ATP synthase subunit b, chloroplastic
Amino acid sequence: MKNVTDPFLFLGFWPSAGSFGLNTDILATNPINLSVVLGVLIFFGKGVLSDLLDNRKQRILKTIRNSEELRGGALEQLEKARDRLRKIEMEADQFRVNGYSEIEREKLNLINSTYKTLEQLENYKNETFHFEQQRAINQVRQRVFQQALQGALGTLNSCLNNELHLRTINTNIGMFGTMKEITG
């Protein structure tokens, strides 16, 4: 039985195996490297690539089937929508005919209610004006009365001196006494 490491040890006896170097001849190395890489890719990648393409093909077919189903559903919905549109247009025509007369009635009702509201506002304005006018007149009367009263008191106080004041009091007391004797 052979040892598993024998082939690797055999490499050590090769004369060129002891040294490494770069082969700078591009024309000699690139075609060899490319052919090796392409061969490996074709050998190992052929199954993977065909699986990927099959999967992609199945997804595309499935998408096409779904699209066709959706298209069929959309066409049905479109027909239903067109039928509903026709019905709605007929109803709209009826509403339009009936609606014009209803709009006119509502317009007249709105105009009448607006006129009534304006009348009420005018009445409120007039009442407020009369109330404010009476209040202003009463305030003016009160001020005139206060000023007249203050003027009369000022005149009386300036005209009356003590002697005149005592004479007026005595005269009034005498008049009260005479009235008491007459009534008494």
User: Anything to note?
Assistant: Residues 7-15 have pLDDT under 50 and may be disordered. The radius of gyration is 62 Å.
